[in-house]
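PROTEIN DESIGN WORKSHEET
SECTION A - STRUCTURE
LENGTH: 588
TOKENS:
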């Protein structure tokens, strides 16, 4: 047996399988000079590596097209075109003729190209920077004779536990998700991209393991206890037997939870709570309906951009939004405009920034790129004519951003009218409250928007000045910090005084202690991953609003996150009993 590795539970569940170790980073390249007589051989090595990389990319393209669709797979056509670009080849060959080994020439030229593309004022050029990283990894892996850790090579059968440093959006599109039963990463926290992806797919995941990629090997048997944040290498027969028993008990508990949660979410003292779903991909809408969701509280639209070689057309967007809307006839579907940047980069990403979370992202990018934003707004206005669509703006810090968006919406409606395309002009427009600036100045938004939605993942990050994707800071990412709770309370009070609905669509809504606090603070609409809806519904049906309100008021007066957690737990034990609460915490 191996020593257990401890991380953060990102998506609950317990599974056993074999490791597929995915190392997808630019390798270290030693400097090496070659003699004049060796130059011809180095040029031939380069030619062979380029040809092999192109062949491999065609295989990757075919698999990605089968797994994610032709639009998402188009990224690999771009990478093939880069490898076939004569100017790239000539730049590398020029360095080889100056007696640099092929691998060092590739490393230097592609590094220089990446920096040049990243600095470009042309957005299309900037979008190519990450493609260059993939090309660099492929060529150097071949030239250095390194093991091929290509992300598409996942053998089906015994179940694959994918172990990697971090699972970026650009890698996600390549994966055969039918082969994966669990994910473990060195980096990340409960609110990072990989965690949100795992929950949306219903895959057990542990993040923040720090050095799992150094401690396990491909083909090795492991147990992934994602409910407790543990990766156990080389389990013994006794541990495998215990794993099987626990997995069976968890499956039975989930079945009971789902059965008990049928019906409305009403507290024991008669107060109704609306539970909606967070949807990352249109295909998840069916699962959300089956989970009992009352509409969609957050439809992320980054899937339309991430892993793509080109921006989606208006028709592509209409079809994607329509698929979700049709799953929820007569119910609200809140669609968030592009929130790219930070940890959700499109193909090639954005310019290299020292701190992308504080950089050019979300509504900032959209307003600075009106040609891109207007296409999305037109698609949203068209679909809104078919149902209860609501538009939500991410990372808003000033009411000016709302007014600029409203102007673009009016222009989009006018353009659709000129084209004779059916649409709805008066679509409800809301904002995500994700920064202290928005929460503190929330009264300035109340008369300008139709609804407010607390994005607690970023709100915690910006309030506490803690990078939510940094595994080393995971203990400092404390959503129950009194400062965060006070900002939430301020937002709820402003919404109530102006008659504007306030919902929560961040990860706080899916955690029992935190959801209990949110109810007590006055939130009556929660939006969570589809897999979390039965758990939250069970929680709501087992507590009184009076108890939640009293516990929340005590939490607002607390001095530390630990004090808040102790108070909420004591109150919930009084409502549910300790064994029931522990069961819910284990499944959350």
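SECTION B - SEQUENCE
RESIDUE ASSIGNMENT:
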């Amino acid at each position: 047996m191996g020593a257990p590795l401890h991380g953060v539970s990102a998506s609950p569940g317990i599974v056993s399988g074999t490791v597929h170790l995915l190392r997808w980073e630019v390798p270290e390249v030693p400097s090496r000079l070659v003699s004049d007589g060796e130059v011809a051989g180095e040029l031939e090595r380069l030619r062979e590596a380029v040809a092999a990389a192109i062949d491999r990319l065609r295989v990757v393209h075919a698999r990605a097209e089968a797994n994610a669709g032709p639009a998402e797979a188009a990224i690999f056509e771009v990478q093939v075109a880069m490898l076939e670009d004569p100017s790239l080849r000539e730049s590398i060959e020029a360095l080889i003729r100056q007696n640099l080994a092929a691998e060092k020439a590739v490393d230097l030229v592609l590094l220089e190209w990446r920096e040049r593309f990243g600095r470009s004022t042309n957005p299309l050029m900037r979008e190519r920077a990450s493609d260059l990283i993939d090309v660099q990894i492929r060529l150097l892996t071949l030239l250095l004779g390194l093991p091929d850790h290509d992300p598409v090579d996942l053998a089906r059968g015994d179940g694959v536990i994918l172990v990697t440093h971090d699972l970026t959006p650009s890698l996600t599109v390549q994966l055969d998700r039918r082969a994966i039963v669990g994910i473990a990463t060195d980096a990340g926290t409960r609110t990072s991209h990989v965690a949100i992806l795992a929950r949306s797919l219903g895959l057990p995941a542990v993040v923040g393991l720090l050095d799992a990629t150094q401690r396990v090997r491909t083909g090795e048997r492991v147990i992934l206890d994602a409910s407790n944040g543990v990766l156990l290498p080389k389990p013994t027969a006794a541990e495998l037997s215990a794993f099987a028993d626990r997995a069976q008990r968890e499956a039975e508990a989930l079945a009971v939870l789902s059965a008990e949660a049928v019906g409305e979410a009403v507290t024991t003292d008669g107060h109704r709570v609306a539970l909606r779903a967070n949807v990352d991909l249109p295909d998840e809408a069916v699962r959300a309906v089956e989970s009992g969701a009352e509409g969609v509280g957050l439809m992320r639209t980054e899937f339309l951009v991430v892993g793509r070689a080109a921006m989606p057309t208006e028709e592509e967007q209409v079809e994607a939004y329509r698929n979700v809307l049709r799953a929820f006839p007569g119910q609200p579907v809140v669609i968030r405009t592009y929130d790219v940047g930070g940890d959700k980069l499109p193909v090639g990403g954005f310019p290299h920034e020292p701190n992308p979370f504080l950089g050019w992202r979300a509504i900032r990018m959209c307003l600075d790129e009106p040609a891109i934003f207007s296409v999305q707004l037109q698609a949203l206005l068209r679909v809104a004519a078919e149902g209860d669509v609501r538009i939500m703006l991410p990372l808003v810090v000033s009411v000016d951003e709302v007014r600029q968006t409203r102007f673009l919406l009016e222009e989009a409606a006018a353009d659709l009218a000129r084209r004779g395309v059916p649409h709805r002009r008066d679509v409800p427009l809301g904002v995500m409250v994700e920064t202290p600036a928005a929460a503190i100045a929330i009264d300035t938004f109340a008369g300008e928007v139709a609804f407010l939605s607390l994005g607690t993942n970023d709100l915690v990050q910006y309030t506490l000045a803690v990078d939510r994707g940094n595994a080393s800071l995971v203990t400092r990412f404390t959503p129950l910090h009194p400062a965060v709770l006070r900002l939430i309370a301020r937002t709820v009070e402003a919404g109530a005084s102006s008659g504007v609905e306030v919902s929560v669509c961040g990860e706080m809504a899916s955690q029992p202690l935190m959801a209990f606090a949110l109810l007590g603070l006055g939130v009556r609409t929660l939006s969570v991953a589809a897999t979390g809806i039965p758990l939250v519904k069970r929680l709501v049906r087992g507590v009184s609003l009076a108890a939640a309100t009293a516990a929340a008021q005590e939490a607002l007066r607390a001095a530390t996150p630990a004090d808040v957690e102790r108070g909420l737990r004591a109150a919930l034990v009084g409502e549910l009993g300790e064994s029931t609460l522990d069961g819910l915490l284990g499944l959350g």
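SECTION C - NOTES
Confidence is low (pLDDT under 50) at residues 342-350.
The longest strand covers residues 14-22.
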